[in-house]
Write a structure and sequence with these properties.
2 domains; two-stranded antiparallel sheet; 2 strands
Length: 267
């Protein structure tokens, strides 16, 4: 498992660097593909019913997710809000005629709306950041902080973990792993800030790295909660050693808005 994780990560790294560095449509396509695959994995996790109306609502959700990423690439927050509102109207039109024979359709709509907010809306912050000044460096900063924290938490927890962090949600995660992850968040963020973002003040930056780490761990636990409630081990199997795309980006989803608000409103 450890070897598969490293091979997959090393193999994917050049492609990731290329798409981030090119930016523009390249980065939007990257985020869009990740969004679509993650949305599909999410619906696989939360779906507990079958039927035409359910599949239609899910397909609408996937399409809306792609539209949200596109709207973010255009820099239009108002368009993102409008797309989410339009999705609600479409879901209502689909579900109203079906409610008499399938009252569970409302649960499906709840899960679809949760998925849209959880994946494409949160991913859209990465697109918004990339399109700003120093956006490329900020994307690399976010990835460095989160990936370093994930890796460190995994190994600290595996070899030094003794005290459970949140056993009801994820029995394998430990307090020691969490602390190791936060330390790696601080270290990775500080290195990137030192060499590539020297204009950022140190004290607020250190708080940013910690808050991103905390948000990332919350995102990891949130996805674990989704999987545990549906008795699913991994969101998918497309990334050997990592599971699915949602397993790989769960921490990133929660950390991206933290970085966005810091970059635009605090620093």
């Amino acid at each position: 498992m450890h070897l598969k994780r490293w091979i997959t990560g090393i193999a994917a790294l050049p492609f990731l660097i290329f798409f981030i560095a090119r930016g523009g449509a390249y980065f939007v396509v990257l985020v869009g593909v990740v969004c679509l695959l993650s949305m599909w994995e999410y619906f696989r996790i939360v779906s507990d019913a079958e039927g035409k109306v359910v599949s239609v609502i899910m397909i609408v959700g996937v399409l809306v997710g792609a539209l949200i990423i596109f709207a973010a690439s255009a820099g239009s927050i108002n368009l993102v809000s409008g797309i989410i509102a339009l999705n609600m109207i479409i879901c209502g039109l689909i579900s109203i005629p079906q409610y008499k024979t399938n009252p569970l359709v409302l649960e499906t709509i709840k899960k679809q709306l949760q998925g849209i907010i959880y994946i494409p809306l949160l991913l859209s912050f990465l697109v918004l950041i990339r399109n700003q000044a120093d956006g490329m460096i900020w994307i690399f900063l976010i990835l460095a902080v989160i990936f370093a924290g994930d890796t460190s938490a995994y190994y600290f927890g595996s070899y030094l973990g003794r005290h459970k962090l949140c056993p009801a949600v994820s029995p394998k995660k430990t307090i020691e792993g969490s602390i190791g992850g936060l330390a790696a968040n601080l270290l990775a963020g500080s290195v990137v800030k030192l060499f590539f973002l020297p204009e950022l003040p140190w004290v607020p930056s250190l708080f940013l790295f910690v808050f991103m780490g905390i948000a990332g761990q919350a995102g990891d636990l949130f996805e674990s909660m989704l999987k545990r409630s549906s008795k699913v081990k991994d969101s998918g199997s497309l990334l050997p050693g990592h599971g699915g795309f949602l397993d790989r980006i769960d921490a990133l989803l929660f950390a991206a808005p933290v970085a966005y608000f810091f970059k635009n409103y605090i620093k």
